[in-house]
Amino acid sequence: MAKKSRPLSSPCARRLRPSTGLGLLMALILGGCTKRAAPPVDCVIEYGGTTHLLSVSPTADPYRVAPLAIEDAFEFKAVYTAVPKVPRALGFYVYSLSERGPVLVEETKYQAPFPRNAPSVNGTFTGSHHVYGPDGEELVYSCRFRSQ
Question: What's the half-sphere exposure (Cβ side, CA atoms, 13 Å) at 129?
């Protein structure tokens, strides 16, 4: 009985389809197939007529990511884990600031494989998120992967 061959898992290997192990090695070396670094994520945050830009790079220590203070009303935190040995994920958190401290009002998470930037929603993969504080204040954010 003939053994069924498994499809190659690497996008580069699938494209090249070498017939032997040596062929695969040569294709990877000569074919320019290298693992690219995860692209940064750029976010635009709007509040009270002011626009804030935030660039987020992958981290191996997501608990040390500091939030961005948006005046005295909100904090915005973006956590991007895309390094080896850490599950690839993106998390966006919006906190409303109160006398007792920050209160989480929105949490959005994406798992790999990540969505692509969509030209129909201002080139973002998140679309526009409208988040409201307890007194009706509005924060709007959208994020996109930076082109490499």
Answer: 21
Instruction: Quote the radius of gyration of the chain (alpha carbons, Å).
Output: 21
Measured between alpha carbons, how far is 29 from 135 in angstroms, rounded to an integer?
Answer: 59
- Encode burial over 99-126: b for 16+ CB neighbours within 10 A, e otherwise: eeebeeebeeebeeebeebeeeeeebbb
68 close to 45: Cβ distance less than 8 angstroms = yes
Q: What is the pTM of this model?
A: 0.72
Q: What is the pLDDT of residues 114-139, one digit of tens each?
A: 888 887 767 899 999 999 999 999 99
Q: In the 8-state DSSP scheme, what is residue 62?
A: G
Residue 64, classed as helix, strand or coil, is: helix
pLDDT number for residue 7? 47
Beta strands in 1-148, from DSSP E residues, in sequence order = 41-47, 50-56, 68-70, 74-81, 89-98, 101-111, 129-132, 138-145
